Amino acid sequence: MNNDDHTNESKTARLLNLQLVRSIVNNDENMAIDAQQRLAKFENSTYDTTQYNCNQCLDTGIFEGKQCKCLRTKIKNTRYVKIFSQSGLQPEQLCETFATFDLEYYKDVKISDKIDMTFRDSATRALMGAQAFTNNCLNNISGRGMYLFGEPGRGKTFLMNCVANELVINHKPFLYSKYDRLLVEIQNSYAVDSKIKTEHLLQAVMKIDVLLLDDLGVERPSDDAGLKLYRIIDERMICNLPTFITSNFSIAELGSRYNDEMLGKRITSRIAQLCEISQLYCQKDIRMVKAKMLK
Ligand SMILES: [Zn+2]
User: Fold this and answer.
1) How many Cβ atoms sit within 10 Å of the Cβ of residue 258?
2) Picking from 65-74, 79-88, 225-234, which range would have the lowest pLDDT averaged per residue?
3) Three-state secondary structure along 160-178?
4) Alpha carbon of residue 109 to chain centroid
């Protein structure tokens, strides 16, 4: 078997596994069974074996018209589901993958007189950046992080979801959170009767293999919000851990939101050290375009 066959094969297995994860988190039993059957068929054709792991359903996932016990165990034990359920990702985010990122939304016309680049160029660059980031994460190459910014509805979160999906199917542990939500969790942990200690929570965010921080800048720019952000970014930089950030603000704009000018500057400079900065332009808000198409 040559290398191409190997690549295609693992791609098929990964796609089937992704379908299995999606169906599990969406509680779609029919789809789970379908994915399981196709995986079983695929695995049998690959390894050419007539031995079945389960003598009841013969690895099809169905026994007496219902989900077989082996499938239920597999669902419980699957690392994909574990990674997914610990990641903070929502089921609907699993549908956005690199394969469904559509460059057609980005017109092949110059952005403005001042910016010598087309909308499509900016999207292609952001896409390649996100793919490179993912590859670095999966191959444990300590590359730089990515800071992707642009106006709302330009596809930033979509690209982040593409990264998340690749991490799920390759069982790479990660954490996904919008910064304002993470901040609420941090602040809840200040309560005396909180079961979660602030320091434990912060350590988890600082030390997770990959951190996906969505929509940085929607939170109120309090000193506390800024100091916690600084600590997280600083620690991840020291430990060489990959971080992907999206924001509606450029890093200069982000930094200038803080009353404490020094703190704003420290945050800006740390992000610039930690991340490759990329701006995503699109003529129109893609969410609005999609909503119109559905009408
Ligand atoms: Zn079975």
Assistant:
1) 21
2) 79-88
3) HHHHHHHHHHCCCCEEEEE
4) 29
Q: Which protein residues have a CB closer than 5 Å to ligand 1 (ion)?
A: 54, 56-57, 68, 70
Block residue for tokens 């901040």: 183
Q: At residue 294, does pLDDT exceed 70?
A: no
Rounded Cα gap, residues 71 and 62, in angstroms:
8
CA 94 / ligand 1 centre spacing (Å): 26
Please state which of the ranges 10-14, 46-50, 111-115 shows the lowest mean pLDDT.
Answer: 46-50
Q: Give the model's confidence band at 280: pLDDT under 50 very low, under 70 low, under 90 confident, else very high.
A: very high
The residue among 240, 243, 231 whose CA lies nearest residue 275 is 243
Note the pLDDT of residue 264.
97
DSSP, collapsed to helix, strand or coil, labels residue 139 as coil
Tokens of 188: 């809840």
Show the tokens assigned to 49: 């074996």
Residue 26 C-alpha to ligand 1 middle, in angstroms?
Answer: 21
| Number of helices followed by number of strands (H, E) in the chain | 12, 7
Which of 148, 25, 140, 158 lies closest to 98 in space, CA to CA?
158
Instruction: Tell me the CA–centroid distance for residue 253 and ligand 1, in Å.
Output: 56
Distance (angstroms) between ligand 1 centre and the Cα of 68 equals: 5
The Cα–Cα gap between 150 and 155 comes to 9
pTM exceeds 0.70: yes
Ligand 1 geometric centre to CA of 69 (Å) = 6
- Distance from residue 20's CA to the centre of ligand 1 (Å): 15
